[in-house]
Design a protein that fits this description.
It is a single chain. By secondary structure, the protein is of the alpha/beta class. The longest helix is centred in the N-terminal third of the chain and has 16 residues. The chain binds acetoacetyl-coenzyme A. Acetoacetyl-coenzyme A (CAA) binds next to helix 2, strand 6 and helix 5.
């Protein structure tokens, strides 16, 4: 029997996944990540779901990878298990959008998990950081790669080398988060954004996500072509016909997600 470390809920076409390990400030271990990845894969395959929200508690989105679990591991333990690959990496292969609703601490693997989501809505009490250097290691779940892309080399170096935390206001100024809202509003704000996304035509949502991720990860010539070809491809969907007809006929579109 595995201990549930997360909860799920469905509201309309939005799935809400909540990390629930309060005693460890939602520290992430392999079991928890597998539970998250399994739930995300199931929602990704579910035609009734159009977008997901990943949340923690008011005190912590996640305070990092579980330090107690890692403490005794050797180089060969982590290398042979490909620690932080497997289901940790599977999360970035989810095709439907995932919004991170971040309140409290998002540190180390917690900040990296939030960055693996498609965008971050932050509570005004959120604190972001990559403090791994204090443990004698470095970020291992994308922090050294995604943070400089998200907030510039200078700020990423500052955070990763000094281990200092960045509050929500600084995170918004730096471009890490898309919005900052009062802490008691963060989950509702993320669910509302996910509801808007889930009302759009799913094929165009998935292609838009893939194209933005290409911009983030690839070279400009290749990624511009990737975007244009996906734009072309959407002219084969029924939803493109419906969306454009609805605009011309001054009515709301009735998307069938095909
Ligand atoms: N792993 C395991 N347990 C953790 C944890 C973590 N990352 N973060 C917090 N906890 C546990 C604490 O051990 C404590 O447990 P006990 O009550 O059993 O002692 C409980 O959560 C509450 O934590 P604190 O008492 O420390 O709470 P605080 O309010 O005083 O401080 C904090 C909060 C500043 C977040 C502090 O807990 C902290 O610094 N945590 C570690 C942050 C960190 O270094 N994260 C990076 C981990 S390495 C990593 O993530 C690698 C990677 O790239 C994937």
């Amino acid at each position: 029997m595995t201990t549930p470390m997360m909860k799920t809920e469905v509201r309309g076409r939005v799935a809400i996944l909540t990390i629930d390990r309060p005693k460890a400030l939602n520290a992430l271990n392999n079991e928890l990540i597998t539970q998250l990845a399994d739930a995300m894969r199931a929602f990704d395959a579910d035609d009734n779901i159009g977008a997901m929200v990943l949340a923690g508690s008011e005190k912590a989105f996640a305070a990092g990878a579980d330090i107690g679990a890692m403490q005794g591991w050797s180089y060969m333990d982590v290398y042979k298990a490909d620690y932080l690959g497997g289901d940790w990496e599977a999360i970035k292969r989810i095709r439907k959008p995932i919004i991170a609703a971040v309140a409290g601490y998002a540190l180390g693997g917690g900040c990296e998990l939030a960055m693996t989501c498609d965008f971050i809505i932050a509570a005004d009490n959120a604190k972001f950081g990559q403090p791994e250097i204090k443990l004698g290691v470095i970020p291992g779940y994308g922090g050294t790669q995604r943070l400089p892309r998200a907030i510039s080399k200078a700020k990423a170096m500052d955070l990763i080398l000094t281990a200092r935390m960045m509050d929500a206001e600084e995170a918004e100024r730096a471009g890490l988060v898309s919005r900052v809202v009062p802490t008691d509003r963060v989950l509702d704000e993320a669910i509302e954004a996910a509801t808007v996304i889930a009302s759009m035509s799913l094929p165009s949502v998935i292609m838009a996500k893939e194209c933005v991720n290409m911009a983030y990860e690839g070279s400009l010539n290749d990624t511009l072509m990737f975007e244009r070809r996906n734009f072309h491809a959407l002219f084969s969907t029924e939803d493109q016909k419906e969306g454009m007809s609805a605009f011309v006929e001054k009515r709301k579109p009735d998307f069938q997600h095909k």
